[in-house]
Amino acid sequence: MKAFLRETSPVVVIPGVNCDTDQIIPARFLKEDRAKGYDGFLFHDISRDAAGNPDPAFPLNRPGADRATILLVEDNFGCGSSREAAVYALVDRGIRAVIGPSFGDIFFNNALKNGLVPVRLPVARCEALEDYLAKHDGATVTVDLEAGQLVLPGALGRHPIEIPSLARDCILRGLDEIEMTLTFMERIESFEAARIADNPWLGR
Fold it and tell me: Backbone phi, then psi, for 158, in 5-degree steps?
């Protein structure tokens, strides 16, 4: 996965409490070839009109939205079924971070395993940020994972980014858990060699 130190970007606001994984990517697309990318399926059903055409009112379909790599979402984003494809679709779309009051537990962990940074921000701060963005076109937010801070625009200040230390280290280095384990290969091999030397019967 792509390493993440910090990301500064305009923010797209995705409305809807309890936006579940089926809204993020409908189940019928899970059979599609992952190698071709899932970005075309992101928010597929809620971002289109009755005729199946992109709805210009949907936030990610608006002019300039393609420049945004950070989303602001509502409470319990990513709830529902445990499909990692919901994270794939966001990452394939170029989304690097999602800010919201809370996330579905499985979605939160899937995000970390794929280099997508989920930032928990209290409801009042999320609402203040949404209000600021509505009044200041082009305002940006910085997700500084290296410093462990979310830098908000205007006078909204900063907020700590709280994610597990192992996940943070993996994302900063652009490594998944298997790749992180492989960085310890010399120590693993040294340990195994010493163990065999002390217990020769293990190598029979």
Answer: -125, 160
Show Cβ contacts of residue 74 under 8 Å, excluding neighbours closer than 6 positions: 14, 15, 16, 17, 18, 19, 100, 101, 126
Contact call for residues 7 and 22 (beta carbons, < 8 A)? no
Which residues sit opposite 144 in a β-bridge? Answer: 6, 149
pTM as predicted: 0.90
Task: Tally DSSP H helices, then E strands, for the chain.
Answer: 7, 7
The answer, yes or no, to whether residue 200 has pLDDT greater than 90, is: no
Tell me which residue of 99, 41, 38 sits closest to 72, measured CA to CA: 99
Identify the structural domains of the chain with CATH numbers, from first to last: 6-173 (3.20.19.10), 177-204 (no CATH)
State the Cα–Cα distance between residues 28 and 30, nearest whole angstrom.
Answer: 6
Cα–Cα dist 201/112, whole Å: 41
In angstroms, the Cα distances linking 83 to 65, 94, 171, 193 are: 25, 19, 20, 40
Structure tokens at 52: 């199946």
Note the pLDDT tens digit of each residue in 118-152: 999 999 999 999 999 999 998 999 999 999 999 99
